[in-house]
Amino acid sequence: MSTINDVAKEANVSTATVSRVINGSSRINADTEKKVLDAMSKLRYSPNTIARSLAKGHNDCIGFLLPDLSMPFWAKLAHEVEKCAKSHGWNVMISSAPKNLDDYYAAYNRLSGSMVSGIITTFIGGTADFIGRSKTPTVTIGSINEGSHSVSSNDEQGGIFATRHLISRGCKKIIHISGEMLPQRSSNARTYAFVKECEQSGIQCKLYETSLVDQVENDYAGIVGNVFYENADFDGIFASNDILASMCLSTALSLGYRVPQDIKIVGYDDIPISAMIYPPLTTIHQNYQKLATLAVETVLNLINGVDVPMKQQVPVELIVRGTT
Fold this sequence. Notes:
Distance between the termini: 62 Å
CATH topology of the largest domain: Rossmann fold
Keywords: DNA-binding, Repressor, Transcription, Transcription regulation
InterPro entries: Cro/C1-type_HTH (IPR001387), HTH_LacI (IPR000843), LacI/GalR-like_sensor (IPR046335), Lambda_DNA-bd_dom_sf (IPR010982), Peripla_BP_I (IPR028082)
Radius of gyration: 24 Å
Protein name: Transcriptional regulator, LacI family
CATH class of the largest domain: Alpha Beta
Strand content: 15-25%
Number of helices: 13
Organism: Sphaerochaeta globosa (strain ATCC BAA-1886 / DSM 22777 / Buddy) (Spirochaeta sp. (strain Buddy))
Shape: elongated
Domain HTH lacI-type: 2-56
């Protein structure tokens, strides 16, 4: 196995120069840097990241704690977080945040104890004080807790766009299937906006709430079945994510409803499958790239001691397709 001394000898430079190239020093000219990188490639030399971390006093790694990689929204966001972090020269260590607080605390502590320099985490109800006490710079996605830094989509805007669109398409009785309405969760704003828009327009509305367990497992058969069993004359559905909306679509078609003639459906997230199903799904587009960029840059600023706003939002967009 090659060592830093072997690289220095191959490139005809000092070991200090090799070290500066590895650590991205601006004091190295382009020709010298190329010689060192060519030597590293030739000798298949890989720097000891643990030793580098100890020398610098921090690890160039961010932790990303999400509910479950099987959830399309979080899988796509994780991909964008990793891309953005790499563009800044950082790595990402991904872990899942289980459904109960004790397991969440254990997962968070494993990350913070793994030499990550900062953590991006999904919002889990009841964790605000825990995160506030953490010494690891942390950014929460989807929280409105005043005591921690967070980034989120503009969920109120999304709720308004979805509801006004359904009303503009002639819907008179609309059902909204939300996620779990936990305190301090930014996505609650979608539901509040939905109710407000319906009330202001004199539109009948009804709410159903999906449990966090069902969301993580993508198990919506029960709640979708209840919607169609308990309601005979509704003409619009606003679902809290595209998987749920897709199940509403397939259920409606299997029961003989025409979409969009009889029932109009709007989803949320704009995951890739929403454009692939038939009819393609009208949905609210969350800007994954901007969310990821904002989360990564915010946690890097916190790591470097730069002041950043406590709450930051990314606009959403209505994507009109065949279900409305």
